[in-house]
Design a protein that fits this description.
Region (Disordered): 609-651
CATH class of the largest domain: Mainly Beta
CATH architecture of the largest domain: Sandwich
Keywords: Cell wall, Membrane, Peptidoglycan-anchor, Secreted, Signal, Transmembrane, Transmembrane helix
Number of strands: 49
InterPro entries: LPXTG_anchor (IPR019931)
Biased composition (Low complexity): 617-629, 636-651
Number of helices: 4
Helix content: under 10%
CATH superfamily of the largest domain: Immunoglobulins
Number of domains: 4
Organism: Kitasatospora aureofaciens
Largest sheet: 7 strands, mixed
Shape: rod-shaped
Structural class: mainly beta
């Protein structure tokens, strides 16, 4: 005899005694769904109506329906959907209608749940969103029903840079959706596209060899991406090449980004796809042209995931690669002049900039010439040879610094070709200045190759250039003379030991107006030289010009053999003979270079023991205030200086005190002999 089970509501409580009776009679306690199936239809409908808005109850202990979820292991955030299946098995003897509830969520970010989507394939083959459950499903008795689903995790700016878990919760509900018949929970790893840089460079040379490195973009998920732009952003002065499969290099063209200061955006591939599990690697070499700035530059390799026209792409990759740019690809070689003449013409020289890099390099060439005594503007000059073949002055700024006086200028926007050289033709001079024309020394020439901004030194050189003044030497000069006696012969040498040529040199002898002077010509004959009275009142002096030729070539010595006599009536006593090279005669500010002069004692009879006649014997010569003795004649060379004197056409300035001492001695001698005083006027050019 069979036992008919009584109807029970969900609130029925089974006592221990009742459960024992049911077990003893062999009655199987079925699930609530089974009761609903066996019960009259009206009762089932009522139950469904009563529980429509409530959560489904927990499943009973003996389901006829079971659930198997073949969840995907991974899904790509921002990638395409990943398909999977959920299979419901009906082990019962009657067909069963059910609903399949599927939910997906992550605890990584509440906002991220807004972009997680589950879809099912409908009977018409179309994919439709699962809002809560997949409705209208039936599984035959003893059969299975497989539902095709797919999971998508969309882009969200707060959910792109780390791996997280999407929890996939599935449940089989009865036809009313009120009771859970079977359920499953699976974890799906939500992966993101990654970008890595292999052998990332830390330094690069402006205009130098490019640096090589790898950019690798990976899709570790089961999603297919169709929206990934593989790009690299770099400085506007960059160049980028990509190695092809055959090993050759393809030059990429960057697109300027105005909002990023003109940075260039390079596309590493036209294809925006990344297949499931795909690894995309490109071997690159990055260079920087000569107009790049020294310092740190930032390179951004990115995978840009497109979110559509209403949103900016989401970037995946390192924040940046910092590269320190240096300028050592450029070198500087200076072929400086060995010397320049003080007051002479400019001397040419070259400065060559070399470029070991693979791109043309613009640069500025800074020039700094200095000397400790060039204490006013204009004492040093530089010129450059322009493209039109004309020499043009380099604008120099005069500055006093602790180590001396500097004359600083630059040539801007010069370019040296890749793997080539640029030679700049220059010339250096110490223009005539009567305050220091007789000084020798050194001009320090400091040159530097700067970047286009003028802020960074790419290469530099410092050279010493000898500054040489003209030298005047007298050999065999007389020490005594007799009025109306035999003239004394001696040599005057005008020495230019510098690389400068002179075109403004007047070789002169200045002495008492009661004198005569002859110059020996090439054929040995003698030419009378007419003395020109000086314009200084009371000076009682004349100037003899030894030649009309004012040129004195570089590294040249011109020697004049002369004979000097004194006429009857010449005053007895000591007089002085000055042998000078006058620079810039007949200009506003001429300068004389040479010894201070040598004394000649004019006597009525030859002085015993002092030589043969007027020219021979031991002599005493004044050399810039110093006394020396030599046999067989004197070399009145002296220290180069400018002296107080007056020549035809203008006054001569002086430097130092030696000239005043000599002038004072001469004046004292003349006054003692009753002759009018000899005055030396001074006219100094302001420093």
């Amino acid at each position: 005899m069979s036992v008919v089970p009584a109807r029970r509501s969900r609130s029925t409580v089974l006592t221990a005694a009742t459960l024992g009776v049911l077990l003893a009679t062999g009655v199987v306690v079925a699930s609530p769904a089974a009761y609903a199936a066996d019960a009259p239809a009206a009762t089932a409908t009522a139950t469904a109506t009563a529980t429509a808005t409530a959560e489904p109850t927990a499943k009973a202990t003996a389901d006829k329906l079971s659930l198997q979820v073949d969840a995907p292991a991974t899904v790509g955030r921002g990638g395409g959907p990943v398909e999977f299946t959920e299979t419901v098995t009906n082990s019962g003897t009657a067909d069963a209608s059910f609903k399949l509830r599927v939910k997906a969520a992550t605890d990584a970010s509440p906002l991220a749940n807004q972009v997680i989507k589950v879809e099912y394939r409908d009977t018409d083959g179309a994919w439709k969103p699962v809002t809560d459950t997949v409705p209208g499903l039936t599984v035959a008795a003893g059969a299975t029903r497989t539902v095709q689903l797919r999971l998508t995790t969309g882009l969200h700016s707060y959910w792109t840079d780390r791996v997280s878990t999407v929890k996939l919760s599935s449940a089989v509900l009865d036809a009313t959706g009120s009771t859970v018949l079977a359920e499953s929970t699976k974890d799906v790893s939500a992966e993101y596209v990654t970008l890595e840089v292999g052998n990332a460079p830390t330094t690069a040379v402006i205009g130098g060899a490019p640096v090589e490195f790898d950019v690798t973009i990976k899709n570790p998920s089961a999603s297919r991406f169709t929206n990934v732009s593989k790009v690299l952003e770099a400085d506007k002065s960059s160049t980028l090449q990509m190695q092809k499969a055959d090993g050759s290099w393809q030059t990429l063209t960057g697109t300027s980004l105005p909002h990023a200061g003109g940075d260039l955006l390079y596309q590493l591939a036209d294809d925006q796809n990344l297949a499931p599990g795909e690894t995309f690697t490109r071997h690159l070499r990055l260079g920087f042209t000569g107009d790049a700035k020294i310092g740190t530059t930032y390179v951004h390799p990115w995978a840009l995931l497109d979110q559509g026209s209403n949103y900016s792409p989401v970037s995946v990759g390192p924040q940046y690669i910092a590269i320190n740019l240096t300028g050592s690809a450029l070198g500087l070689s200076v072929q400086e002049p060995a010397s320049i003449g003080n007051g002479g013409k400019p001397v040419e020289f070259t400065e060559t900039v070399t470029n070991a890099g693979s791109s043309d390099a613009p640069f500025n060439l800074k020039l700094d010439a200095s000397n400790p005594n060039a204490r006013s503007d204009g004492r040093i000059a530089l010129e450059s040879l322009d493209a039109d073949g004309n020499w043009k002055p380099v604008g120099l700024t005069f500055k006093q610094q602790p180590d001396g006086f500097h004359f600083i200028g630059s040539l801007n926007d010069v370019t040296v070709p890749a793997h080539g050289a640029k030679t700049v033709q220059l010339r250096l001079a110490a223009p005539l200045n009567n305050d220091w024309a007789g000084q020798s020394g050194t001009v320090k020439l400091a040159s530097a190759v700067l970047d286009r901004t003028g802020q960074y030194v790419l290469a530099e050189s410092t050279k010493d250039v000898a500054l040489k003044a003209l030298d005047v030497q007298t050999k065999g000069a007389p020490t005594t003379a007799v009025p109306g006696g035999t003239p004394a012969e001696f040599d005057i040498s005008f020495i230019n030991s510098s690389a400068s040529a002179y075109d403004n040199v007047s070789p002169i002898v200045q002495t008492d107006r009661r004198s005569t002077l002859q110059v020996q010509k090439a054929d040995g004959s003698w030419e009378n030289v007419t003395g020109v009275p000086t314009s200084q009142p009371g000076a009682d002096q004349v100037v003899y010009h030894l030649t009309a030729d004012k040129n004195l070539p570089a590294s040249t010595t011109v020697t004049k053999h002369v004979r000097l006599g004194f006429t009857d009536g010449a005053p007895i006593g000591r007089t002085y003979v000055n042998t000078w090279a006058v620079l810039g005669e007949n200009t506003d500010f001429p300068a004389s270079v040479g010894p201070q002069g040598f004394p000649v004692d004019v006597t009525s009879t030859p002085v015993s023991g002092t030589g043969k006649g007027a020219a021979g014997g031991d002599t005493t010569a004044v050399k810039a205030g110093l006394t020396s003795t030599s046999g067989g004649g004197s070399d009145a060379t002296g220290t180069d200086s400018t002296t107080d004197t007056q020549s035809a056409g203008g006054s001569l300035a002086h430097t130092g005190s030696d000239g005043m001492l000599a002038a004072a001695a001469a004046a004292a001698g003349l006054l003692a002999s009753g002759i009018a005083a000899l005055f030396f006027a001074r006219r100094r050019r302001s420093a």
